[in-house]
Design a protein that fits this description.
- The structure is a homodimer of 242-residue chains.
- Chain A is built from 9 helices and 12 strands.
- In chain A, α5 (109-121) packs parallel to α9 (229-240).
- The first copy, chain A, starts with a strand and ends with a helix.
- Chain A has a 7-stranded parallel sheet with strand order 8-7-6-11-9-12-10.
- With 242 residues, chain A is an alpha/beta fold.
- Helix content of chain A is 32%, strand content 23%.
- Chain A has helices at residues 9-16, 20-26, 34-42, 69-75, 109-121, 139-145, 159-168, 206-209, 229-240, and strands at residues 2-3, 28-32, 46-52, 64-67, 84-89, 99-104, 126-129, 153-156, 172-176, 182-183, 193-198, 214-217.
- Chains A and B meet through α5 and α9 of A and α5 and α9 of B.
């Protein structure tokens, strides 16, 4: 089917997926570009393909709608839209694993995407997002993950609910501080751990800090007050993966 | 002096500093917000203060212009402008040091800023930007550095000019690869080195690769093709700082 009008009710519904409210209501989200569409497909989350009218791309068993260039621009969040987009269902949560990254109030979509990418790289099996962390299905987050959000268990939870459970199950809870914490180069290996990274400006919340067994810091030149939180997360996960 | 019109020739000149062309012509650039203005001042690069009319901020020996809220919005690159801005002269280049970070075609301003921040953190003394790397004085780069661009020697050079000189001076030249390089966890300490990080999509250029003594890789899960280049740089600099 070829859609040519942005007034079409189906097209309007897809457009609305740019808003968190509608993503939450429908349990659906959009991905843009062949790479992300294929990642969604191979992970079983792709529901529908949206292609520019002349596109010959094909994925077995996936219903496909064709649209004009104008509709594509209308649906896309990019200045130069890809000719291939996909509607996906949100990823279901799995049981919590043994190597956990907890994000306490991350606001920047690019930072969240980058952190998901690093988490997969360094064998984290579960990411827990605090309720005030940016939406996982924000288009910029999805792009920054480079599709790796389909390869890791991600949950959104109140940290004051989940942290007592982890403590009861004997996870080591690592907090992070920009200075005066334990040098992250001297970490001992733990079977079950959760590492908490905090908000870009304010770090970890006081109520979250209360659950930490030990605070880690990255040794650095004192002219530099702190690293970008995505970089700091990368370094700490790299150390935990030794 | 209070400026109230965006047609004023001085205000127009300041506005033009948002464009690389005029920054190059004048040798000036803009910083926004008290933190960056103070960093520029203490490093000796601040030439002039621009304040919202009611602002009482003061820096000894710095000529100050006052502007209306409207002019501030006009001059700012931010949706919510700070009441304090500064015109700075570009930072002069110093002699090349012994711990060098070379960036070969970095395109994303946020990545460049983050990398400068990490370089200061991990005791790099000189950053060399290839001619096709994004402008150091791009407003997003400056914001992402958190002012640390004032604390490190940064030069822009043709890499095919500078690399032969470094080789002659017995620097170890490290390249980076997403896989199959030497494990960066097993680095030996070198007194004089240059580490080259490549473009977001394409890595290091062929002509640059030819100068590398050894290629480093970060060991990671094979589901993840690569890390964000800012994160990868952070981890490699962290290892080189051991």
């Amino acid at each position: 089917m070829l859609y040519t009008s942005s007034n079409n009710s189906k097209i309007k519904k897809i457009k609305k997926l740019q808003q968190k409210k509608y993503r939450d209501e429908t349990g659906l989200f959009l991905v843009e570009g062949e790479h992300l569409v294929k990642e969604a497909y191979h992970s079983g989350f792709l529901q529908e393909l949206i292609l520019e009218r002349d596109e010959t791309f094909f994925l077995d068993g996936i219903p496909t709608s064709y649209v004009t260039k104008e509709i594509l621009s209308y649906l896309s969040t990019l200045e130069t839209p890809y000719p291939i987009m996909g509607v996906c269902k949100k990823i279901e949560e799995k049981n919590i694993g043994e190597r956990i990254l907890i994000l306490d109030g991350i606001q920047d979509p690019g930072n969240l995407g980058t952190m998901i990418r690093s988490a997969v790289a360094f064998h984290i099996d579960t990411i827990i997002l605090s309720l005030d962390t940016v939406d996982l299905y924000n288009p910029k987050v999805i792009r920054s993950t480079q599709g790796l959000l389909f390869h890791i268990n991600i949950q959104r939870r109140a940290l004051t609910d989940i942290l007592p459970l982890l403590k009861k199950e004997d996870y080591t809870i690592y907090g992070t501080k920009v200075s005066n914490g334990k040098n992250c180069r001297t970490l001992e290996k733990k079977e079950k751990f959760a590492i908490i990274m905090g908000n870009e400006g304010n770090g970890i919340k006081k109520e979250t800090e209360a659950f930490c067994d030990v605070f880690l810091s990255i040794p650095m030149h004192n002219t530099c007050e702190s690293l970008n939180v995505g970089v700091a997360t990368g370094i700490i996960l790299y150390e935990l993966d030794k």
